[in-house]
Specification:
The chain has about 200 residues and is α/β, with parallel strands linked by helices. The protein has one domain: HAD superfamily/HAD-like (Rossmann fold, 3-Layer(aba) Sandwich), CATH 3.40.50.1000. It is about 40% helix and about 20% strand. Strands 4-3-2-1-5-6-7 form a 7-stranded mixed β-sheet. The longest helix is centred in the first third of the chain and has 12 residues, at about 30-40. The radius of gyration is 16 Å and the shape is globular. The N and C termini lie close together (about 5 Å). Pathway: Amino-acid biosynthesis; L-serine biosynthesis; L-serine from 3-phospho-D-glycerate: step 3/3. InterPro entries: HAD-like_SerB, HAD-like_sf, HAD_sf. GO terms for molecular function: L-phosphoserine phosphatase activity; magnesium ion binding. Its cofactor is Mg(2+).
């Protein structure tokens, strides 16, 4: 048995949709959210700046409602199944806010294995963003050998630090910056999961 631990990006890696655009669709702010998300994925806007702007777009929607929407977002079933069956060795590393994703993390049995951005909530609304995760800094804290799985520009630092880095392009194109830092690219949920099982 290997000593690898598995670090998963959430949006478009575990989920079959980008979470923030999905929420913005409910409040008719999809075009501006999509433009920001796409520019960020391509590395044109720093993740932190973009994320704070995207949170601002969603500030009118209640935290409970967002949490419910996120918990119901469809998942890549084979990747999600790998996480559920190996949850002691899997971690979710996501820029999304802790208060938005807690329901989905419960569904995946990942409540205590999640690293995310954090926010304060007052009267069921985001009052302020406390911290925005830096995935590369987070990965430096792990001591075991790492397998990283992601799709976006902000997964590049995580990939550089990983012992084995995977890009998953089953939902959207793998970001060019990430492609330069990965060992393997997968474009189907089942093929990616099959490879992960071989690393156990």
């Amino acid at each position: 048995m290997s000593d690898y631990i598995f670090l998963f990006d959430m949006d478009s890696t575990i989920t079959r949709k980008e979470v923030l655009p999905e929420i913005s669709r409910r409040i008719n702010k999809l075009p501006e959210m999509r433009a920001l998300t796409e520019a960020t994925m391509r590395g044109e806007i720093p993740f932190k700046t973009s994320f704070l702007n995207r949170v601002k777009i969603l500030s009118d929607i209640s935290v409970k409602e967002v949490n419910k929407i996120v918990a119901e977002v469809p998942l890549n079933p084979m990747i999600a199944d790998f996480i559920k069956q190996n949850n002691e060795r899997c971690y979710v590393v996501t820029g999304n806010l802790d208060v938005w994703i807690s329901g989905l993390m419960r569904k995946l049995n990942m409540e205590n294995h999640t690293y995310s951005s954090k926010a304060d909530v007052v009267d069921d609304r985001i009052s302020k963003v406390v911290s925005v995760i830096d995935k590369e800094l987070m990965v430096r804290q792990f001591v075991q050998p790492i397998v990283s799985i992601g799709d976006g520009d902000n997964d590049s630092g995580m990939a550089r630090r990983a012992d084995i880095a995977l890009g998953f392009g089953g939902v959207r194109n793998i970001a060019p910056s990430l492609l330069r830092n990965i060992d393997y690219a997968f474009y189907q949920d089942d093929k990616c999961a099959e490879f992960l099982w071989k690393l156990l």
